[in-house]
Amino acid sequence: MKRWVFPELCDGVRAVAHDIEAPRHYLKLCGSNKELRNAVPVRWEVQPANYFMLATATALDTKPLPHGYRLELHQAGPVTRACVIAPDGGLAASGCAAEIADAFIYDRIETAPDHRRKGLGVAVMAALGSARKSLANPQLLVATEDGRNLYANLGWTVLAPFATATIPES
Question: What InterPro entries does UniProt report for this protein, alphabetically (predicted)?
């Protein structure tokens, strides 16, 4: 699986899309689904709309984890992974973040459906945020439609629509 991320629509998006014919590759664009759909061959399937977001608040209002839950934090080079383990030992929530020279980027923040509305996602975000070395670096993420509303309540703003396309497996 490979991902190509483009900050804007350009000839590179079209070139990569025309060259790739195998599934499990992803084209990502800071732009609308319509823009991406018009730039790629018909074999590409455009996924539901997402949003590229920026944190405008600096601190999260976190509460202790519910009874029986525990947080694990793992570091591998510039990547930090946070996992909230449920009382039964299953994965209740998780996410990753990495800091590069000019940004702190959150990725794949998810709370399992049976564990939502318990503050676990906020706990993951706070744990990942504690790994930031430069508070001056902007915090960025890509959110789904549902996530957009949740992050907005945490002080995030939408910078741009974010489109993704992939070739489905036959």
Answer: Acyl_CoA_acyltransferase, GNAT_dom
CB-based contacts of 111, cutoff 8 Å, min separation 6: 84, 92, 93, 120, 121, 124
pLDDT digits (tens, 9 = 90+) for 43-71: 999 999 999 999 976 667 778 999 999 99
With a cut of 50, which residues of the chain have pLDDT below it? Answer: none
Q: How far apart are CA 71 and CA 86, in angstroms?
A: 9
Which residue's structure tokens are 């975000």? Answer: 125
- Other beta carbons within 10 angstroms of residue 14's beta carbon come to 15
DSSP per-residue letters across 62-121: --PPPTT-EEEEEEETTEEEEEEEPTTSSEEEEEEEEE-SS-EEEEEEEE-GGG-SSSHH
The domain in which residue 23 lies consists of 2-51+162-166
Q: Number of structural domains, the chain?
A: 2
What is the amino acid identity at position 5? V
Other C-beta atoms closer than 10 Å to the C-beta of 152 total: 15
Entry pTM: 0.85
Quickly count helices (H) and strands (E) in the chain.
4, 10
For residue 90, what is the domain's CATH number? 3.40.630.30
